[in-house]
């Protein structure tokens, strides 16, 4: 089937991820008396890795990736338009990705995309926090940067290139300050948030809320996209996020994923060969960008623990080494599909340092 890895290749890729997590370097915050110093980006080792630093099978897999990636890239307009048309026909993210007062009226029964047996009828209170107008329906962008949080961004100098796009999408409220700007930029048009962030960092917003509001300043007046109706546990805390933003008059604009769109998107990618429990946020954002933008550029999408150039060890994220939930997301399989779209000229995947890419 198109887009699927061979069983042997998939097995090697999964082995790489599992073993690679043991090779990554931990990032620690250093305290100075009672104060915590701002966290600085970890400097990756820009030298060829020793044999002991490369997990079994990694070199062969990355070599195969390089063989496909290193071909001269050129946008294939016909293939791009075909893929975008397929997405629009089956998912229609432009109109359906975000809940609005028009597409989700009072009385409508929402079906949770992560819990198909759970439903919620929209009441007036819930309806009041839905955005009135669709932020995408009347707009079209020439270039979009979709920024993943992979450790491959460390020391990449991609910030300027990322920020040069007309529309910049970021995932899960990532840090953009204290030295990260050079590698990841600071411009944000849309940022997603996993509800676990509100629970773990801000006590589910049942206590003091000012620290949360202050943490949003770096994202300006961007859209804050929340999966309030994926799982029942998400709904109440996402509502509190919207209320907090309103109460403190924060410029950021909370909007909610439409579970109907997420369900149709899962079916679309399943038909493309991705048989995973749940799509990653990154792949969902790439899907939206392919409908919204003429030219889609991806940064920070690299699921392996060794860099494709030099094979030196990478942390899982550019800002920490917290492992991904492998039980939920099939990162190597998703990456393989994105790499295929890159080689087909549908989107542009950036794996090298951006200074060298510009030359």
TrEMBL record:
One GO-annotated biological process of the protein: N-glycan processing
Keyword tags: Disulfide bond, Glycoprotein, Glycosyltransferase, Golgi apparatus, Membrane, Signal-anchor, Transferase, Transmembrane, Transmembrane helix
Predominant place of localization: Golgi
Species of provenance: Astatotilapia calliptera (Eastern happy)
Membrane topology: Single-pass type II membrane protein
Compartments, as annotated in UniProt: Golgi apparatus membrane
PANTHER family: ALPHA-2,8-SIALYLTRANSFERASE, ALPHA-2,8-SIALYLTRANSFERASE 8F
Name under which the protein is recorded: ST8 alpha-N-acetyl-neuraminide alpha-2,8-sialyltransferase 6
Molecular-function GO term, any one: alpha-N-acetylneuraminate alpha-2,8-sialyltransferase activity
Disulfide bond positions: 144-293
Transmembrane spans: 9-29
Family of the protein in this entry: Belongs to the glycosyltransferase 29 family.
Any single GO CC term annotated in Swiss-Prot or TrEMBL for this entry: Golgi membrane
């Amino acid at each position: 089937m198109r887009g699927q890895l061979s069983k042997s290749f998939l097995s090697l890729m999964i082995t790489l991820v599992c073993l690679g997590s043991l090779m990554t370097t931990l990032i620690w915050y250093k305290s100075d008396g009672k104060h915590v110093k701002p966290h600085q980006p970890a400097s990756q080792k820009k030298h060829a890795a020793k044999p002991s630093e490369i997990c079994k099978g990694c070199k062969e897999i990355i070599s195969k990736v390089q063989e496909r990636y290193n071909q001269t890239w050129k946008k294939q307009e016909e293939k791009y338009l075909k893929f975008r048309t397929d997405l629009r026909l089956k998912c229609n993210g432009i109109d359906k990705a975000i809940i609005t007062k028009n597409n989700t009226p009072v009385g409508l029964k929402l079906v949770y995309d992560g819990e198909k047996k759970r439903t919620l009828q929209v009441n007036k209170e819930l309806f009041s926090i839905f955005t009135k107008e669709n932020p995408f329906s009347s707009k079209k962008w020439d270039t979009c940067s979709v920024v993943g949080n992979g450790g491959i961004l460390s020391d990449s100098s991609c910030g300027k290139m990322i920020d040069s796009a007309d529309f910049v999408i970021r995932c899960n409220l990532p840090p953009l300050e204290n030295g990260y700007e050079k590698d990841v930029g600071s411009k944000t048009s849309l940022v997603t948030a996993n509800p676990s962030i509100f629970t773990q960092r801000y006590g589910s917003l049942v206590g003091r809320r000012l620290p949360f509001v202050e943490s949003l300043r770096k994202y300006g007046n961007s859209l804050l996209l929340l999966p309030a109706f994926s799982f029942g546990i998400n709904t109440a805390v996402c509502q509190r996020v919207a209320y907090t933003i309103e109460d403190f008059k924060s410029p950021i604009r909370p909007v909610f994923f439409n579970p109907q769109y997420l369900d149709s998107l899962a079916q679309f990618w399943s038909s493309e060969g991705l048989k995973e429990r749940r799509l990653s946020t990154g792949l969902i954002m790439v899907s939206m960008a392919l409908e919204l933008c003429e030219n889609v550029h991806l940064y920070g999408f690299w699921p392996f623990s060794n860099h494709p150039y030099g094979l030196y060890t990478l942390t899982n994220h550019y800002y920490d080494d917290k492992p991904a939930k492998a039980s939920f997301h099939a990162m190597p399989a998703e990456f393989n599909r994105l790499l295929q779209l890159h080689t087909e000229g549908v989107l542009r995947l950036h794996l090298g340092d951006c200074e060298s890419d510009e030359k």
